[in-house]
Amino acid sequence: MQALVFDRPALDTSATRIARLEPPTPGSGQVAIRVAYAGINFKDVMSRRGDPGYAPRWPFVPGVEVSGTVVGLGPEASGHRVGDPVVALTNEGGLAEIAVAEAALTVPMPAGLDPGRAASAPGALTTAILLHDHAARVRAGDIVLVHSAGGAVGRSLADVARARSGARLVGVVGAATRVGTARDAGYPTVLVRGDALAADVRAGTSGRGVDVVLDPQGTAFLHEDLAALAPGGRIILFGNAAGGELAALPPTHLLYRHNASVGGFSLAALSADAPAMVAAAMRAALYMLAAGESTSEVVVLPGLAATPDAQQALADGAGRGKYVVRVSG
């Protein structure tokens, strides 16, 4: 089979290639899927950079989400049959003609849903639902600040908030060129990240601050996040897009001072610890897509050979919409 491979850590496409590999064999509780479409995610970039915990071996096949058809069942794999059209969270290995996924993280593809669009569900949209409903427990009336509002998860969070809580959204972007993208996604207020971020947030909320901060930038802006919180607010860190070493969390006295809580979220870890919760969120994400409740643009690329440039666009902050690559079919 053909697959996209990272041979070693790299900041560009120099160590990325399309390789011919032996197809993987599903293990216990797993299914093999002939991949029709695979999503491209910022996690690919973090794996390619060699960020700790993202690429457990080299060479490495990235790819966290796929749509396709079941072509093999491992021992103890239940709930699926060969020939079933499915959508799966693979966590790795999805950018290949054959991918393996846990049966518990593989769900039926809704009838009539475009499989290219379906492949965009297990990553960003599922993450957004889990962040909104479970990690941050967003409620009606909350003010929610979202970093990287113009990115795939940021755009999905706007869709989820609009459909589920109606929370007031404040988007934060890293450059003025991303303001329009965040506004188009559904953020009525968009701020450019900088030294005055907390002051800007308070000015825009009549001094109140925000109830929730959702931050994929690791700990790089944690002190600004704390300063922007309303009393009783909560911060959820859900990635380390900035790369590098994570700093220590704020000392306890600062949490007391702000009546604040800081939590973490990892889709990969939750899929290992609570696969039923993740699968339920995937089904909800697919329902949102089928119901037209997601406004994110899906950009379909013609084949694996187009993937390295799309990953580089994400690394450069120049991506447009949600990239999905047609792998086969």
TrEMBL record:
InterPro entries linked: ADH-like_C (IPR013149), ADH-like_N (IPR013154), ER (IPR020843), GroES-like_sf (IPR011032), NAD(P)-bd_dom_sf (IPR036291), Zn-ADH-like_protein (IPR051397)
Stretches assigned to the Enoyl reductase (ER) domain: 12-325
Superkingdom of origin organism: Bacteria
A UniProt-annotated Pfam family: ADH_N
Protein name: Zinc-binding alcohol dehydrogenase family protein
Organism whose genome encodes this protein: Plantactinospora siamensis
